[in-house]
Design goal:
Layout lengths: L1 E6 L4 E2 L2 H17 L6 E8 L1 H12 L7 E5 L14 E10 H10 L3 H17 L7 H17 L4 H6 L13 E2 L19 E2 L25 H18 L11 E7 L3 E6 L12 H11 L7 E8 L9 H10 L3 E6 L4 E5 H4 L11
Parallel strand pairs: 1-3, 3-5, 4-7, 10-11
Antiparallel strand pairs: 2-6, 4-5, 5-9, 8-9, 8-10, 11-12
Helix pairs in contact: 1-4, 1-5, 3-4, 4-5
Bound molecules: tetrahydrodeoxyuridine (THU).
């Protein structure tokens, strides 16, 4: 599994060892669940203030929490052969400040708390929940299995295994964090829960405040990461452009609702009219894997242009066929402009016009 880790807070000094342990914990879950090497998860450490805003916006709960899981996909793992290049599982957002507090409260330290929260959150992304007693027991068992693999399970804590290894139960350094009395105890229930992908949210969900604010992931930092990810893929695929005539390399990628990414580059031909643009190659690549209209959430295109790269009319028509709502026009230096399909191709020709 690919783990995109970023420490986006300054309040807690998180050691390299803590990050390494967190990654080991996540990889243990990946191994136990036989996740493919193409599966990707983003993990971000934030402060209480940031997680408070996310908790309020997405769950309607007006306070910080320890961890939030933003699922991109609830589907099965994609097939390896003919499957997408990458499978984005979602985002894990952990409050480092809360992890410090909880690590102290439960007496097992920051590192173990951090790993626990990561493992718990990844299991949420894989569909586990703790809504009722039975589900909770299953989820707790899965947590233990993963944590056992890195000697950080509750059983290890009870036995004191690893106590001589300072990294295992280390407490992070927090500026001006008051010491709290240590209350030894079993792992508490994390307050957070998986946040469903927008497509699956029901009006009844307390985190779905329809109309209050755009619920689209584009408002949260996580989406910036998704765009960055797409952009990276686009630059890589652009290198494969077959352009003996124009020498103008273009790369493109589409992101599906289930978090899969399909890429494309332009492929030219001596019979010039047969040239196919990068955007269409990306869309057709997705279609060949079974992706259908309304299943693509975003397309990103980039070339070495002064301003951002604007898709040709033919590609816009194909985007209209697939009803891709968001198009990110970029250049290889990373300048980006996001537009809607309607802005790119108003009055487009649709199947409904002749059906
Ligand atoms: N091209 C694309 O790949 N996408 C576009 O949106 C515009 C043009 C390619 C096609 C051809 O290989 C080269 O750029 C010059 O037209």
């Amino acid at each position: 599994m690919i783990i995109n880790f970023s420490d986006d807070q300054d309040e807690v000094k998180v050691s390299k060892e803590a990050v390494a342990l967190l990654k080991q914990g996540l990889q243990a879950v990946a191994k136990l669940h036989k996740l493919s090497a193409k599966t990707e998860v983003s993990v971000s450490l934030v402060n209480d203030e940031v997680i408070h805003v996310l908790n309020k916006d997405y769950r309607g709960i007006d306070r910080p929490t320890d961890v939030l899981s933003f699922a991109l996909d609830e589907a099965e793992e994609p097939q390896e052969i003919g499957g997408p290049e990458t499978h984005l599982l979602g985002d894990i957002i952990i409050s480092a400040e809360t992890a410090v507090r909880q690590g102290r409260e439960y007496g097992h330290g920051f590192n173990r708390e951090l790993v626990y929260l990561g493992v718990h959150s990844l299991l949420h992304l894989l569909g586990y929940d703790h809504m009722n007693k039975e589900d909770k027991a299953v989820m707790r068992q899965e947590e233990e299995k993963a944590l056992q693999m890195i000697h950080l399970s509750q059983a290890d804590l009870d036995r004191g295994t690893g106590k001589d290894d300072p990294d295992h139960f280390a407490v992070a350094v927090v500026d001006a964090e008051p010491e709290k009395s240590v209350k030894k105890g079993k792992q508490k229930d994390t307050a957070s829960e998986k946040i469903k992908p927008v497509k699956n949210r029901k009006k009844s969900d307390n985190n779905a405040k329809e109309g209050k604010k755009s619920m689209g992931r584009k408002d949260v930092k996580a989406t910036d990461k998704t765009i960055k990810k797409l952009f990276k893929k686009v630059l890589k695929t652009r290198e494969n452009a077959y352009v003996p005539f124009s020498n103008f390399k273009v790369g493109a990628a589409v992101l599906t609702k289930s978090g899969d990414i399909y890429t494309g580059c332009n492929v030219e031909n001596s019979s010039f009219g047969l040239t196919v643009c990068a955007e269409r190659v990306a869309m057709f690549n997705a279609a060949a894997a079974g992706v259908r209209p309304r299943e693509i959430t975003m397309l990103l295109v980039a070339a070495d242009t002064e301003d951002v790269t604007s898709p040709c009319g033919a590609c816009r028509q194909v985007m209209a066929e697939f009803e891709i709502p968001v198009i990110v026009m970029a250049n290889i230096r990373g300048d980006m402009k996001t537009v809607s399909l309607e802005e790119l191709l108003p009055f487009s020709f649709k199947a409904a016009d002749f059906a």
